[in-house]
Design goal:
- With 185 residues, this protein is an alpha+beta fold.
- The chain has a domain of 123 residues: Gcn5-related N-acetyltransferase (GNAT) (Aminopeptidase).
- Helix 1 packs across helix 3.
- The two termini are 21 Å apart.
């Protein structure tokens, strides 16, 4: 049985994962939501104005009242900058699984932050919410995300071929998962 507890603040040595705040808007615009390359990696729209970002934050912040809603701002402790986001979504209460997604501004790539954030959320997913399975995916060609997924210990499950039609071509989606007993090992 799942124990829904909502989006609570969690920390690692270098990161704070916390609920989004309206004051995150400038960092979001500066570091990732306005970047077409970053947003296309997880099929999200591009936001170019503070009004658009406020609308997104309205959606995020308004959902925090639900105990089964999980979306964190990724804050770099040293700078206090909101460098990205990570979420648990596609929550399946019946079968006790979920999927996670994450993104970081390109300035913060290749520093281990995504892997660190994923590991925090895995711990939260298995030890606090009690999921049996956590799954994650990436688009074919997203080598950086594939590296995060493999470093985090996920097991490849399969490919949904030609899942997306983007920029005039088809792109496949690769799926991975981790079971709770695999996480404990």
């Amino acid at each position: 049985m799942l124990i829904h507890c909502g989006t609570q603040t969690i920390e690692s040595e270098r990161l704070i994962l916390r609920p989004f705040q309206y004051t995150d808007d400038n960092d979001m615009l500066a570091y990732w939501v306005s970047d077409p390359k970053i947003q296309s990696m997880y099929s999200e729209p591009i936001y170019t104005t503070k009004e658009e970002v406020k609308g997104l934050l309205d959606k995020y912040i308004g959902s925090y009242e639900r105990p089964d809603y999980y979306r964190w701002a990724i804050i770099e402790k040293e700078s206090q900058i909101c460098i990205g986001q990570i979420a648990i979504f596609l929550v399946n209460d019946t079968n006790h699984f979920c999927e996670i997604e994450y993104c970081l501004g390109s300035k913060f790539h290749r520093k281990g932050y995504a892997t660190e954030a994923v590991r925090l959320v895995l711990d939260y997913s298995f030890n606090k919410i009690n999921f049996h399975k956590v799954q994650v995916c990436h688009k074919d060609g997203n080598i950086a995300s594939q590296g995060v997924i493999k470093k985090s210990g996920f097991i490849y499950e399969g490919t949904l071929r030609d899942f997306f039609f983007m920029d005039g071509r088809y792109v496949s989606r690769l799926y991975y998962s981790m079971l709770k007993d695999e996480y404990k090992k």
